[in-house]
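Entry 14. Structure prediction run on the chain below.
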Amino acid sequence: MDIQAIIVLALVCASGAISPGPSLAVVMRNTIKGGRAQGVMTGIGHGLGLTIYAFIAVMGLSSILTGNKNLFTSIQIAGSFWLIWIGYNMIRSSSKELPEHHVDSGVKGFVEGFMISFLNPKILVFFVAVFSQFIHGKLTRIDIAIIVMVAGFIDTFWYVLVAMLIAGTKLIDQLKENSVWIDRVTGIFLLGIAFFIIIKLIF
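Output returned:
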């Protein structure tokens, strides 16, 4: 791949990463509740899940998933229930006081970040659409590695950056003061997305 193609790919991936959605909501929530470590690990976990999808798309296995309606629907349903679980816990735990110290929160952040990414098959569809502009018959293993690494690095960098910027600042203090309402609004937002997906699947 030439430099121009890599730059274009990076810009497209960046536009997808920075768009508001459940992933950003979870990263921000974990940073508020668990501190910088949990927020950063959430971003790393999300990046890993996204990188796996990027690899699948590049290797051409995406046709198996998108071509199998039952499998695709099953993953969508699993993703919806994962969103419902996270949203429910946000609403239920919103009345609890925030801890003064954050202990062993990295694993939880990593798992939630990974799951919110890996159980979102729309990421695979997005990569199929994007990578179709860069994949060709003469693609080498190095080209494949570059495409996957660019997508994974940009996603991980963005969410880790978000966690780093809001942690340890006055903004995080303001967010903590309003964490009850942030949790409730974010939880309702995630529940809304999940129910919308389920309703769309039914009808």
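Residues 20-202 form one domain.
Filed with the rest of this week's runs.
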